[in-house]
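hey
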């Protein structure tokens, strides 16, 4: 087996100071870091829940990204979005970190420009990656898909998943607040169920791992911290 210390294309850690394009394989999903452009893209796995990060976002800072541990980093919101300071990402265990080339990026921003040219080669992916994307991407042809296709698919999946989770009225009752007030304060109340089931970096006991709002409340955490996350839109 290749020793990562002696192989610059397979490393044990990223800090954000590197250059190039990197594929981060976790237990549940794959993340693509373009450190030349300063972006990160999530391609969720079949058993991973959808999040608002299932798209290309500007990378703000990497907090920790090491093989064998959870990855955590922050991303900047879209230009003109004054309601959000930044987004958090917290992953399952990182399994592998590999340097790749730009034509190995599947269906991400600035990646599949070859899709407009039928004579251009398809992305140089392994057979396992091609099978995974074809089977689980939800797109008829993920290798010809554009960023807009992925964003549309993600939004549809978010709405389907949110509809099966907690309602605004259930969350309001849990927090002992008025349902109408919670709807008024939230930017997107339809996603309240997703937020309640997603780990939040600001919800941690001492130096423990990030908790979901439900775990935080079950662990005796202050409900006001959950209210702040729901109403200030600092989640994810």
């Amino acid at each position: 087996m290749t020793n990562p210390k002696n192989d610059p294309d397979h490393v044990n850690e990223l800090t954000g100071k590197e250059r190039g394009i990197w594929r981060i394989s976790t237990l549940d999903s794959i993340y693509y870091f373009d450190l030349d452009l300063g972006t990160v893209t999530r391609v969720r796995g079949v058993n991973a829940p959808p999040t608002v990060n299932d798209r290309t976002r500007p990378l703000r800072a990497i907090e920790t990204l090491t093989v064998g541990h959870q990855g955590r980093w922050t991303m900047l919101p879209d230009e003109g979005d004054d309601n959000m300071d930044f987004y958090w990402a917290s992953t399952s265990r990182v399994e592998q970190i590999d340097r790749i080339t730009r034509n190995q990026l599947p269906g991400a921003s600035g990646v599949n420009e070859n899709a407009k040219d039928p004579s251009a080669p398809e992305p140089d992916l392994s057979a396992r990656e091609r099978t995974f994307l074809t089977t689980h991407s939800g797109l008829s042809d993920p290798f010809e898909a554009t960023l807009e296709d992925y964003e549309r698919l993600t939004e549809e999946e978010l709405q389907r998943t949110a509809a099966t989770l907690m309602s605004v009225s259930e969350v309001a009752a849990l927090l002992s607040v008025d349902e109408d007030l919670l709807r008024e304060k939230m930017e997107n109340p339809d996603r309240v169920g997703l937020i309640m089931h997603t780990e939040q970096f600001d919800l941690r006991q001492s130096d423990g791992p990030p908790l979901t709002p439900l775990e935080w409340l079950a662990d005796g955490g202050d409900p006001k911290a959950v209210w702040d996350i729901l109403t200030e839109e600092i989640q994810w």
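The first strand starts at residue 10 and ends at 11. Strands lie at 10-11, 21-26, 29-34, 39-44, 56-64, 70-75, 87-100.
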